[in-house]
Amino acid sequence: MLNNQGRPTNVDNVNSNVGTSTGAALLPSEPLLFEVGDKNKSGVDLPQTDTDFSSRLGGFARQTPINLPGLTEPQSMRHYVRMSRLNYSIDAGFYPLGSCTMKHNPRLNEKMARLPGIADIHPLQPQSTVQGAIELMEELGRWLMELTGTGAVSMTPKAGAHGEMCGMMAIKAAHEAKGQSHRKIVLVPESAHGTNPATAAFLGYKVKPIPAREDGTVDVQAVKDALDENVAGIMLTNPNTCGLFEPDVIEIADAVHEAGAYFYCDGANFNAIMGVVRPGDLGIDAMHINLHKTFSTPHGGGGPGAGPVVLSDALAPYAPLPYVKRVGDAVALIENPKEGEEHLGRLSAFHGQMGMYVRALTFKLSHGADGIEQAARDAVLNANYLKAKLSDVYNVPYDGQPCMHEVLFDDKSLKGTGVSTLDLAKAMIDEGYHPMTMYFPLVVHGAMLIEPTESESLHTLDQFIGTMRELMADAKAGNIDRFVNAPMKAPMRRLDETAAARSPHLRWDEPEDDAATEAAE
Length: 521
Hints:
By secondary structure, the chain is an alpha/beta fold.
């Protein structure tokens, strides 16, 4: 449980043990700046002044003390550096996070994104002064359309969920243009990413779930049975969230189109098939692409994100503004289309994230078409290697076909040990690993979804396999304390994450004892 300073209420939760069983040193817990500094002192020497600032600020003058800790510059710098060293990152270790594709971010990408003329441009500059940047967006879009076999691309969306909304908005606009606003149902497989039904519901659709077969793939007959004149489309992830390629995807697409609906494909797992399979050839009408997952741009806190959306010829007229168009020898961002031209309007103030575009295109150009294909094949190879090496000790719920870029296990192998998926994941932290994705997809009890990506070496995978096998052996041997008390060698022990999430304290307040002492003095 966290107190109002974001720290454990029980001091025993703060771990001073700085060693791990793998020999990697972890720093002890770093106190808050408020706990380090003194609010009654300043970290710099400032001359006294008699200036009355209240006369200049009027009613906006501060009425209470600022209560910021007085710190020197070295104190502040060391605090943030130590905090950064507490973070787990892809540059520090292996991220087996399924469905998140935490691949290595090549330093070449970073160098290109910092080039003068790229890093310092402004979105309000005249287009004539940023022709190179617009051409870069055009080239990136061309690669995306070629890799997906589609007819149009929108670079505007800022993330996967934003891209989903863009694709579904295009579908909705297409139906409205044909006078089919009555289509209010969207089919969503039960194993879909949670953003899929949320996006459909946000746009006013009723979500109709589609069950999975025993092999973990979408039941094509269930799709056909659900299709009627009220269905607007289907939102299907391929490869799906169980780490499997949908074998009946073409048959599903044909049935959806025959019913007058559209096929939205969640492109979160495009990393597994890029350069190998073109989703457009499978019949998709719209698909978002996470540049941070598939094309090595920073993920999460290293963002911002970018989720371009590719569209079929049928949906191309409904792409949002602005879009890139070549006019003679120049390229332009079309802000105001011709009268009568259909579009969605704007999804955001500006076109997108230039730094992410540069990084993604750098990845493509440095790999080439053959390198992109190899990356996809290596991602699938690595996942199947983990499956082959761990499936004798971790149960595979769907074992009818090779997995794609991620392998899914469940908790059946832990039955009777007293160890849960969560306990196992916490024990992984003590071994220096970020936990895999837990309890997702929801269709599998105690799910453990592991994605090695193409970035990891055989040596890294073998180390991970050895750790996972040793953890399972210890669980079956009855060493419960290792798991239920984990992590024991991290800066923080296990916290009440549910309480912290439901009742977060995001502002530091002075502890009551300290405040009372100060008042007494």
